[in-house]
Amino acid sequence: MSLNVAVFLGSNVGNDTKNIKVVKEFSKWFCSQKYNLIFGGTETGLMLELVKNVFKKNLQIISIFNKSLYDEYPNSKYFSELIITKDLSSRNELIINKSDVFVALPGGIGTLNEIFEVVSKNLLNEIDKKIYLVNDNYFWTPLEELLKSLSTKKFVDQNKLKKNFRVCKLKELKSEFKKRYAKNRS
Fold first, then answer.
1. Domains of the chain by range and CATH?
2. Contact (Cβ atoms closer than 8 angstroms) between residue 28 and residue 57
3. ∠ CA 169-46-42 to the nearest 5 degrees?
4. Fewest CB atoms less than 10 Å from the CB: which of 44, 105, 125, 160?
């Protein structure tokens, strides 16, 4: 059985050219591992870069849209399976349920929403699934600092957070996946 990896990333490219570089490098590695991709958004921006590369390799892509987003972007074509949910909450819930692990690349409010949904469910012991924020261009450093500050101020249990949340370089992600998830390979 192949690992189901939800990848959260921007529907825009952003103003830093390093974002595309990180996504291309991640895509190359992801495809070489033959993981199943689960994503919940449009085929635009950084998401388009990822899904095009995964699609070219004929890997499983599960695209989960909420209805209003699909109505706005009905011409999606890079998927093996398309699921349309009634709203954002049910979309996030389905992504979480179908995924074994989560990876966040640079993104905006939607990406933050997905990250915090996973982090919150882990902190509340509703799930026990790891999320990695790929930080090669220091994109996630401000969020990492905010969470450290919240921990210092006793608003977040740092030990609980560390159990399933990691900000890391792509090289570290590859190494951890090799150690932690190799058993799930088909």
1. 4-177 (3.40.50.450)
2. no
3. 130
4. 125
Give residue-wise pLDDT tens across range 34-92: 999 999 978 889 999 999 999 999 999 999 999 998 888 888 898 999 999 999 999 99
CA distance 74 to 136: 33
* pTM > 0.85: yes
Distances (CA, A) of 55 to 67, 77, 103, 116: 23, 9, 18, 28
How far apart, in whole angstroms, are the C-alpha atoms of residue 159 and residue 60? 35
Radius of gyration for the alpha carbons in the chain, expressed in angstroms and rounded: 16
- Phi, psi of 81, deg, nearest 5: -140, 135
